[in-house]
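Standup notes, structure subgroup. Blocker cleared on the flavin-adenine dinucleotide input:
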Amino acid sequence: MKNALYWVTNDLRINDNTALHLANKSENLLCVYVVDKAWFSPSNYQSKHMGVKRWNFLQACLDDFNQQLSRFNQQLYIVYGDTLSTLNNLCDQYEISRVLTTKHPGTYESAILTKLGDSKPNINITAVEQFTLFTQASLPFELSSLPGSYSKFKKLVIDQALPALVPNIKKLPNMFASMPLTSSFRPDWLPEKEGDGCIDKVAFEGGESAGQLHLKNYFSSMLPSDYQNVRNNLSGWDNSSKLSTWLAHGCISARQVAQEILTFESNHGKNKSTECLFLELLWREYFQWLHFSVGSKTYQFKGLGVKSPLTSFYPERFHKWCSGNTPYSLVNACMKELSATGYLSNRGRQIVASCLVNELSVDWRYGAAWFEQNLIDYDAAVNWGNWQYISGVGTDPRGGRHFNITKQTELYDPYKEYQSLWLTSADHNTDALDSNDAVDWPVSVSR
Ligand SMILES: Cc1cc2nc3c(=O)[nH]c(=O)nc-3n(C[C@H](O)[C@H](O)[C@H](O)COP(=O)(O)OP(=O)(O)OC[C@H]3O[C@@H](n4cnc5c(N)ncnc54)[C@H](O)[C@@H]3O)c2cc1C
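Run returned:
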């Protein structure tokens, strides 16, 4: 294995990175990240795969990873273009005999690996299992027998021994003598930089360094002991761990988070909150294995069910929902927060998803795609899995969730404090869902 190529994806970290350990068996190493043009083109659902907020965060992750690599006389080569042809060309140019990457359930990633393997049968391709907490072999069941509900999954894995972290690397193979330098050229299809979103004046800062610092800070505080009591609050930096963004980009690993929970429990005691936090990590885990198990069904209208839902696509309703201009103030505030920050609390996500599907009767995939574009913590398995769950085409044994918006407002925003954070006096609720009535006459909208 003389020459290796490490295709870096959602694993933007030096620590607890098995792929880098395997790379050490080679003489020369090329670390590549491909920023694919397709991410910034419209998807089938009127959204782009990546919006500007996540792109901002990702750029900071790439800068940080490059700096970490430079400590080992290595560098990250960033290419803008098409992923498959870039990998194919680099494999030829550098006479690559081994490709390393992180195994990801997304159908896009696995299709690229399959095509690369088909066109380069002599190259050893290794997809390392390190985006998940467990490996497939360590699951106490075959993937084909993955439990059909989270609660059954949880019962089977809850007492599973946690995987150890991999030791820190001490060295990396040489760069190629003719290593290309990442050019400063930026193609015109990249979004323009815009300000990062802040929550309680704290901005999400991309990269392993910021992610590790946040992980340490969170578990050095007593916040994990109170997690269950505050996690459903709609706003506030401290109301949940805020680890999802770094987890989604692989700046921190699920194994590292699980270890921190264990250490916290041995120092301060286990309680309902620390248990609850671990269970949330297991929700993430469940959705990853579910996606591995069902593949492209993750993105289908009927999801895991046999019948398609009765919802449809109403462009006007969808656009009102996206811009936070529905008849529901709480939903509008959440949608404004999502657009402004790239983040939304779990409770907020549930409320707006339920509204789109149940009140607005819109095809859930448009909402999932809007989240994909706008969330900085976008994770394919978790996002589409949660949308399916709420829409009743996923693994919810109760067949979908309908959140009563009035009740949710009474419970989580009784004094409209959250709404006043995101709505201004210029924001009006549209009383009518549609501008046209059933016979297509314009409806007069009273304000
Ligand atoms: C419709 C919808 C779409 C979602 N899309 C995403 C997404 O694209 N990316 C994403 O990371 N999360 C998504 N979630 C899950 C959840 O809302 C976020 O993980 C959470 O709000 C992130 O904040 P946190 O890190 O402070 O979470 P915490 O409450 O502190 O939870 C700790 C960790 O547990 C995991 N987790 C928490 N809630 C869930 C959940 N409901 N499902 C699976 N894992 C969970 C996350 O990894 C999170 O970082 C979605 C939820 C819904 C309802």
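Discussed briefly. The chain has three domains: 3-131, 198-294, 315-422.
Next: hand off to the docking folks.
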